Amino acid sequence: MKKILIIGGGIAGLTAGIYAQKAGFQSVIVEKHSITGGECTGWDRKGFHIDGCIHWLMGTKEGTGLNRLWKEVGALEEETEIHQPDYAVKAEYEGSTVYLYRDLDKLKEHLIDVSPEDREEIETLCQSIEAFIGFEPPVEKPLDMMNPIEIGKFMVSMRKVGSVRKQLGNLTVGDYCTRFKNPAIGKALTTMIPEYYSAYILPSSLATFVSGNGGRPKGGSRAFARRMEEKYKSFGGELVLGKEVKEIVVEGGRAKALLLEDGSEMTGDYVVPACDSHVTLKILLKDRYRDRKFEERYKDENTYPLQSSVYLSLGVDGDLTGYPQDFAFQTEKLQVEGEQTDMISYKHYCYEPAFAPVGKSIMIVYFPAKYQWWKEKKREQYMAEKTKLGEDVIKGVEGRFPELQGKIRVLDVATPLTYERYCGAYKGSWMSFGATPKAKQMIHKGRIKGIKNLYMAGQWLMPPGGLPSALLTGKWAIQRIK
User: Fold this and answer.
1) Rounded-to-integer distance, Cα 288 and Cα 281, Å
2) What is the mean pLDDT of the chain?
3) Are residues 75 and 91 in the same domain?
């Protein structure tokens, strides 16, 4: 029985391990952390549970290809309850309130009520959303492994969405939102998708949500990953936790072994690095192998931006069930990374009773973040900035909800450095390269020139990344080996 060594126990690594076992290989997953899941994780603070990943998951709708794969790897089970909120975002801005409803007809009617002067643009947006409903990426195999008939079928499925991508592909989300006369609509849309992303991502993401294919699995991100871990172990896979791989030993054009931090080695027939691609290329392979596609993207962060955040967790002494669940609102200006903002966006998790003690609630406030700004801070400055931000955010939330005054405390502040330290995430990014208008699309085959038996997996191979990219590339890595 041939052996596959998998580096990283995140979603890509667990997926690769599960499909390796199903295909008759012996596999070992080596994970440096004490738990699996990678960036699909959650952590506990002061009696509260902080969900660190899933905002919405593509593949929660029965009958879709991704749903079938999530069930195959155990991430979703038949009894897994899916939370489907009525709206993706509620935004208050300059006197208007906008809901991005899950019901498409209700969404259109509501937006027109808010801004009758934007009727034509709103109707066009809803038509674009309809075009994406039902569209899915290929899940059985990557395009380069398809036969001509399979490619033809996929191209037919692309017709409707191809038209929308052609119309919006050269615009950023921010540029597109200026088409709306009421700025609150644009503010709601950019709360959901970053301003620098290509504008076609908006209808694509909203279509996932309104079609019921973008819900949240109950139990959160940590439970999601743990179900995969149990599935992997049930197939006989071996899991090694708390061991960091320091180097992939390559001899004669083949990955011969993994050198671990304790000086021991593991040998196998194939190696699947399912960790951050920068870690694989620069650290594990000691920068000895060039890859033009990755180098081009790492060098040009304007075209291929990285997405990270400050993730501020608040414990609330009270039940927020009746409060907006995903909410963005204006507040007095506050400083984030030395720049002013007048918006606070939060989520609360009252639909997950186990995430907070009885009678209390957890609220997550998040801001886009710049890695270098935090990296340059000395420890005292770093801690002081986190403390000040927590104080300012509490003041802002209390300003919008005066009845919560004195009932909110900071539980945790995660920055890009947190994601880098715990997950090995390049510059703290929890997504892959941003999908900007100038960005070239990439589905990397995971092969590194000069190494015959190495097959990469992970979200970095298929920007803009996320859990579906990790799932698919983990599966495809094993298909390429077979």
Assistant:
1) 8
2) 95
3) no
